[in-house]
Amino acid sequence: MKATKSPLVLEAFFLLENRFKFVQLEEPLEDVQSALFDKYGIDIDFTTRVISPEHDPKQVFDVFTKIGINNLKQPLAGYSIFLEGVGRYILDKGAVPEKEVENLKNLSALTMSIGLLRGILMDITSNAPMGKYILPSIAVFDLIKEKTNRKKRKSKPKNSIEE
Questions:
Q1: Of 9, 62, 74, 119, whose CB has the highest number of CB atoms within 10 Å?
Q2: Domain of life of the organism in this record (predicted)?
């Protein structure tokens, strides 16, 4: 099949923070993947910042993405990781119907940013004592939904009554 270029372009991606720590195992484990990796808590947060004016047909925006894996004060044995990166995206709003602009800007850009951090994560852990850690598939739509709900809760006046 012939691939069509997306109107969403990744201009640059930068790693802003990288913390990796190996927490010694008390006893060797035969199957590290199922014994430890599956128990790690994964926390992902993101923020989008528009750079260009809203009326500009080529919208420029940044997506800041943070991923924490077993990133606790008292982490489980194995890996404790925190990564933060920022992607600069350009979206040609005139090339797609208006209803697709938000989908590309939010869902697609965030998915790309998580994928880029996933690759960095695999590189970091590829030579680590327990082998490569691969970030599981993430329900990005659920992340966006949760973020939207948090913003709504924070924006309610303190004396408001929930229905």
A1: 62
A2: Bacteria
Q: Domains in the chain, ordered, with CATH? A: 8-144 (3.10.420.10)
Question: 36 near 29, Cβ under 8 Å?
Answer: yes
Question: What is d(CA 143, CA 110) in angstroms, rounded to the nearest whole number?
Answer: 10
User: Is the distance from CB of 84 to CB of 20 less than 8 angstroms?
Assistant: no
Q: At residue 55, does pLDDT exceed 90?
A: no
The tokens for 53 are: 């004016």
d(CA 154, CA 132): 38
User: How far is the C-alpha of 54 from the C-alpha of 58, rounded, in Å?
Assistant: 9
First to last CA, the chain: 51
CA angle 85, 144, 38 (to 5 degrees): 70
For 71-119, what is each residue's pLDDT tens digit? 999 999 999 999 999 999 999 988 888 889 889 988 999 999 999 999 9
pTM beyond 0.90, yes or no: no
Rounded (10°) angle between helices 140-155 and 109-125 = 110
> What tokens were used for 147?
């973020």
